[in-house]
Amino acid sequence: MQGNQQKIPVHELQIGMYVSNLDRPWCETPFPIQGFYIRSADEVKSLESYCKHVYVDVVSAKKQAYEKHAVMGGSGYSGASSRETGASVLKLPPLKIRNRVKYPDIASGKTVSSLKKEVSKVGKLQRNVSVALTNIFETIHSGGTPVYKDVSKAVDGMVESVIRNPDALVWLTRVNTHDQFSYQHAISASIWALVLGRYLGLEKEVLKQLSTAVLLSQVGKAKLPKEVLEHQHTLNAEAFEHYKKYVEYSVEILESSGNVANAVIDVVRCHRERHNGTGFPNGITGDRIPLLAKIAGLVDAYQEMIEPRPGVQPAPAAVAVSKLYESRNIEFQEELVESFIKAIGVYPTGTLVELNSQEVGIVLNHNPKRRLWPKVAVVLNGDKKPLKQAKIIDLLAYNEGKGQKEALNISGSLPAGAYDIDPSNYLITGATSRWSWRHFSS
Asked: Rounded mean pLDDT of the chain?
């Protein structure tokens, strides 16, 4: 055990302590992430149901904690977390979803379409929405009035795809490389929003509304100076005030079109508001923020962490999830944060991970019941040398009946592009002769 960790009985835990390890595997507990701050007496009681003692980090300032300004889209992911800045906490009653839909369960294998089959369909779909958003941004730059019907058509296809199998679009958003940040950011965020909306059981028409709003939420950035966009993570207070106007610009552009639904515009207007009132443009709180806007804000923040603008260090997926978890009931409603983690997994499909064997792999799918034990395609051996053929390991099945010392676990996630691994070269089209989907679908 590392020197900055101290073993203590669960009943001695205090609010504010950081629980870094348990006396049992994390996957045997209901906690959605590995490592978290104690927020309330209820969390202590929950821990008491599973553990006799835990390990706490005695270093109060976590070096990887995510700065509050960063969650709002300001800087990189190092600095003081929202909790450490003393931000106010706001607790709300459970969400009430009208006409909740029960979609096929991924873990049960009852999805309508296999990952292999669905990936073959959604590549063209994502290219279409990218072209549509590119045209919109270029039209705004030139002072014209955009036409949104191509976006609407693409959204219909995205919704149908995520209902059939949400992992396929997640796969593409994790393995594709992006050139034009603002609209590629919007595409990826819209996919996360659809996956969360599906998990929550939102009706199909509501999912379309949500996806359209997230896709169009960035259009106002086309009116910002290039230097503001390229350096948004290092802006001074005056420049950041200018940056925040992109929300106002987005609303103006969409309202002037006359063919974008008011419900979509309301989501765009509120997607940068935050649960405790620290967002913009109006600083509204809690239930005054529409549900779809809460979802849009959460996925926007997550996408900003894992794929920030060039020059800013990206956060590995597990770190980004951890930072969202730290922000529950501060910047984002707790129930939505926990639902998002359950929907995408701690290690979403397509995430690069390192195992405790020192091998490196790519997550093929996550297991909602054992979020720390997904199915992984190992591509580098323990010496970080490429394997001639992928080694497919279902960590849940592999670890069945094994003790903690013998178990094969993920030691951490890696940023996109680590070790020069490009998953799209290996897994989507069989671009190299050594690899094919046959290896990953068996």
From this structure: 81
**Nearest-5° angle of CA 16, CA 40, CA 279?**
75
Taking a C-beta distance cutoff of 8 angstroms, is the pair 233, 312 a contact? yes
Q: In 10 A of CB 47, how many CB atoms?
A: 20
Q: Which of 180, 185, 66 is nearest to 134 (CA)?
A: 180
For residue 117, how far is the Cα from the chain centroid?
24
- Average confidence (pLDDT) over 175-200: 81
Q: What is the mean pLDDT of residues 370-396?
A: 90
In degrees, rounded to 5, the angle at the alpha carbon of residue 174 between the alpha carbons of residues 115 and 169 is 40
Query: What SS3 class is residue 127?
Result: helix
In our burial notation (b when 16+ CB lie closer than 10 A, e otherwise), range 194-208 reads bbbbbbbebeeebbb
- In the numeric block, the tokens 């796969």 are attached to 171
Whole-angstrom distance, CA of residue 381 vs CA of residue 388: 10
Side-chain-facing half-sphere of 143: CA atoms under 13 Å: 0
Please say whether the beta carbons of 62 and 16 come within 8 A: no
